[in-house]
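User: I'm new to structure prediction. If I give you an amino acid sequence, what do you actually give back? Let's try with this one:
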Amino acid sequence: MADLKLVRDFPVSAETLFAWISDGTRLLQWWGPEGVEVPEHDLDFSRLGPWYSVMVNGDGQRFKVSGHVTHVDPPNSVGFTWGWHDDQDRRGAESHVTLVVEPTDTGARLILDHRDLGDDDVSANHESGWTSSLRKLEARLANPV
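Assistant: Good question. You get back a string of structure tokens that encode the predicted 3D arrangement of the chain. For your 145 residues, that looks like this:
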């Protein structure tokens, strides 16, 4: 099984960063790679239980992913399962994501740990998607509304 770990530092407090990775309203502002919209969702990582999102790219392709929030430890971490759905809405292989927030001297660090991805190709695809999503988060935190 392939795993993925990404680390990013942000010039905000750990509490602020945790809010951006757990609160549904804030999640929607950066969730999904650049160029996608999320018209359907139940994104709320501030509570245990099921979640899902449907991402739609510029060509109208739909990508559904769902899982369960397995732990919430404010302002330190959130964990959830992850599984893509096929065209018949059947959920595929499950992987596990943990988002850890650590305070730093200049703000807060986000550690994204995505495990049990299957193989290197799946891991590379997730790395591309998460990297793009984190660029959106970085932009939102640099220019809050």
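You can read the tokens as a compact description of the fold. Here is one thing that stands out. The chain has a mean pLDDT of 94.
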